[in-house]
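[worker-b] picked up task from shared queue
[worker-b] task type: protein-ligand structure
[worker-b] ligand name resolved to adenosine-5'-triphosphate; SMILES cross-checked against name lookup, match
[worker-b] sequence length check passed
[worker-b] input payload:
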Amino acid sequence: MDKNEEVLDRFNGITISWVLMIIQQSSRTISLYSSDLERRCYKLTFHERDRENITKEYLKHVLKEGKEIKVRNRQRMLYTNNQKENSMHDKVWSRVVFEHPATFETLAMDTKKKEEIINDLVSFTKRKEYYLKIGKAWKRGYLLCGPAGTGKSTMIAAMANLLNYDVYDVELTSVRDNTELRKLLINTSSKSIVVIEDIDCSLNLTGHRNKEKENDQILKYAKEDSKTKVTLSGLLNFIDGLWSSCVGERIIVFTTNHVDKLDPALIRRGRMDMHIELSYCKFEAFKVLAKNFLDIDSHDFFGTIDKLMEETNITPADVSEYLMLKTTENVTSCLERLIQVLETAKEDAMLQSQKEAEEKKTLTKEQI
Ligand SMILES: Nc1ncnc2c1ncn2[C@@H]1O[C@H](COP(=O)(O)OP(=O)(O)OP(=O)(O)O)[C@@H](O)[C@H]1O
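[worker-b] inference finished, payload out:
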C-alpha cells in the first residue's frame, strides 16, 4: 500500500477502511536509512456500532490470516545435519532452499490410500486445540515402507509441499552419539518434517534384538563407514523428546525397505501413528504416471498394460523411466516399449519361480 492509500475490507457484513499512515519522527541523530525516522501504521475506520466486533473478532481474524499468508509465502528449506567432524561453527544443520516438484496429485499410488493420507495430514494440522485438550504434544509419526523406487522420498516431498513445512533430513550414520542427536532435535523449528531415511540401513535398530544370528544378517545392510554411537534407546528418546520438548507442530517420517527387520518399539503406534506401504506399480498408479509423463487419460494399450501389471512387479521409478518420451518417439511407441518391458519381466519372473520350484524339489529329495 502507498502512503494514504485506502483499502476497503469486508468482515461479517461490516466494511472496514484501512489507510497506511507514515509518521515522520524527529531525530537528532543522523541515520543512513530513512525508515529509521518513519513510523508506519494503519488507521482503521468503521462504524461505532461495530467496535466490539472489530476489536474482538476482526483483529484476531487479521492476525490469523497474516500468519497464514506469511507461512504460505515463506521459502521452505531442506536441512541436513552437518557432517564435518570438526566443524568450526555451531550450526548443527546446513540448509538449502527446498524446491521439490512432487505433489500428491503427481504421486502414483492407490487413490483411496492417497486420500486417506492427505486427510490424515490436513486434519493433523487443524487439531492444535484437540492435542492441547487431550494433553498430548502436537505431533504425528509416519512410517513409509516399500521396495526401492516405490516413491517413499517422493511422498515426503509431497507431504512437505502439501503442508508447507520445512524438511529436516537426519543422516543418522553421521550423528556421533545420542547427545548430538538431541542437539539436532532441539534445533528444529515448528512446522517441519523430521526425516530418517532407510532407518534399517542406518543403525542396528532391528527387531529380535536377542537373536544374534539375525542381527548379523541385518548388519550387512549397515553402512560400513558408519562411526555413529547412536543407540536404539537414544533414538527412542529422540522421538519421544521430539514430542514432549518441542513447541509447535512436527511430523517425523521413517522410511525403510525392510519393515520386518525393525525393532517393534521403534515403530509401535504412538511413535509411528500411520504405517504406509508403498508398493509396485499397478494400473491405477500407472494412470497417474501416464498423465504426468504423456498427458493422456486413456489409450488402446491400457487394457494390456493393466493385465501385465497385475502379473509383474515393476516399480513406479522404473515405469517413470520408460514413460519419458525420447525425441524420436510418440505416445504409442512409448507405450509399446513399456509393454515389451513388462512382457520380458513377466517371462523372467516365470522362469525364476520355475527355477525356485525345481531347487525346492531337489532339496526335498536330498532331505529324504
Ligand atoms: N509413487 C510414485 N509416484 C510418482 N513417481 C514416483 C513414484 N515412485 C517413484 N517415482 C519416481 O522414481 C524416482 C525415485 O523414487 P523415490 O526416490 O521416491 O523412491 P524411494 O522409494 O524413496 O526409493 P529408495 O528406497 O531407493 O530411496 C522419483 O524421483 C520419482 O520420479
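[worker-b] attaching auto-annotations
[worker-b] The CA atoms of residues 126 and 249 lie 10 Å apart.
[worker-b] releasing lock
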